[in-house]
Structures are given as structure tokens and as C-alpha cells.
Design goal:
Structural class: mainly alpha
Distance between the termini: 59 Å
Order of helices and strands: HHHHH
Strand content: under 5%
Length: about 120
């Protein structure tokens, strides 16, 4: 019984089809839009990779430079010796390593942000 109802329903179903030219035009527009998004995505991926490499190099270089300056920081703390820095002078290495890591990470992050803005990451192709 239900099969007869379904057969009647589908027997009267005759959808109006758009012309081939309209269909092809719509399909072409859709494919062009997909291609534009794909190209933009690939460009953003390339820019992101370049910015990450630049940021990693900047973070590494700043970390090396700050590490080379650690003995100078220690000497400065040993010679200045105000009362507030007396305990810091004894344990300056741990504090200095934390400061070096923080400064290097901050420099790397800011370098990434600047690199992305210079390369025009926010622009639309």
C-alpha cells in the first residue's frame, strides 16, 4: 500500500531542469571561487612558513646573544650589591636564564607578528 503511494508520488515528479548553459556557468563560477580560495590558502601557508623561520632565527640569535651576556650580568650584580639585590646576586643564574628564555620568546613572537604584517598576511589576493 505504501509502495503504491510512493510510486504515485514519484510518477508525478517532473522537476524543471535548468539549461546546460546555466548549469555550466554556475559550475564554472563555483570552481573559480574554489580555486581562488585554494590559491589564497597556499599563499598564506607559504607566508606563515617564512614568518615562522624568521621568528625562530630571531629567537635563537637573541637567545645566544643574551646567553653570551650572562657573565656580564653576573659581574654587574656582584659589583652593584645594593641590599635588595644581595640575594639576587647569589642566585642570578636561575633568574637570568628565565629572563633570557622570556626575552627570546617575546622577540620571536614579535618578529613573527611583524613578518606576517610586512608580508601582507591580511591582504586579499
Amino acid at each position: 500500500m505504501e509502495d503504491d503511494k510512493l510510486k504515485k508520488l514519484f510518477a508525478g515528479f517532473d522537476p524543471e531542469m535548468a539549461s546546460d548553459a546555466c548549469f555550466m556557468s554556475g559550475l564554472r563560477k563555483s570552481m573559480e571561487a574554489v580555486e581562488i580560495v585554494r590559491q589564497h590558502s597556499m599563499a598564506m601557508r607559504r607566508k606563515n612558513r617564512k614568518a615562522v623561520v624568521i621568528a625562530a632565527v630571531a629567537g635563537f640569535v637573541s637567545g645566544v646573544l643574551f646567553t653570551l651576556l650572562l657573565p656580564l650580568i653576573g659581574e654587574w650584580l656582584q659589583t652593584s650589591r645594593p641590599t635588595a639585590m644581595a640575594s639576587l646576586a647569589l642566585h642570578y643564574r636561575m633568574v637570568a636564564w628565565i629572563a633570557v628564555a622570556g626575552a627570546s620568546a617575546l622577540i620571536a613572537k614579535n618578529t613573527y607578528d611583524v613578518s606576517m604584517s610586512v608580508m601582507g598576511a591580511g591582504e586579499h589576493s
